[in-house]
Design brief:
99 residues, alpha+beta, Nuclear Transport Factor 2, Chain: A, 6-stranded mixed beta sheet, 2 helices, 6 strands, 32% strand, signal, Beta-lactamase-inhibitor-like, PepSY-like
Length: 99
């Protein structure tokens, strides 16, 4: 009888271990508002931002650059005649704009 209870406890304990679920990791998306930027020259951009532009926007030129107090950068890129606005952190990570 004691073996029956011991076996039942082991089975229930073993299934409880497998019942745990791991939650998927959600990537952190940095968001930015379009207010509070002041224009700067492109040569004052951090090297990480310049490298990110060259890597992810091949053939693009920086038409205008802006910075805010959090050292987040707003870039107006000229890509094949079209102007595209992107936002980057000082470490070269792309940010998402919030209106």
């Amino acid at each position: 009888m004691r073996n029956l209870f011991l076996a039942a406890a082991l089975v229930l304990g073993g299934t409880a271990t497998y019942a745990t679920t791991t939650l998927p990791q959600q990537p952190v998306v940095n968001e930015i508002t379009a207010e509070g930027f002041t224009e700067i020259s492109a040569d004052k951009l951090p090297e990480a931002v310049l490298t990110a532009v060259q890597k992810d926007f091949e053939g693009a030129t920086i038409a205008k650059a802006y910075v805010n107090e959090k050292e987040q950068y707003k870039l107006e890129l000229s890509v094949e005649g079209a102007v595209q606005t992107v936002y980057a952190s000082k470490t070269g990570e792309w940010l998402k704009e919030v209106e």
